[in-house]
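--- STAGE predict ---
source: upstream dedup step, 1 unique chain passed
mode: sequence only
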Amino acid sequence: LNGQADCNSFTGVWSQQNGFTIKLGASTLAYCGDASLDQQYLALLSNVAAGGPDGAGNLALETAGGAQRMLFKNGGAAPK
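--- STAGE serialize ---
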């Protein structure tokens, strides 16, 4: 997977074996400002335990026990 966490980009892999997991790989380390949530976002992604379609065309990811949930709205195809 490839993603964007505020001003930083990252790579990783995901798996649906034994639940849903995300293992983050390389990431840029730019300082995005005091108001940035990039590190919290990356920490949440690293702790995802379940995920999948939410039934409305979006993706829902949850930490263990559903303690925290992230909802990603489908924005269409990525720009080329």
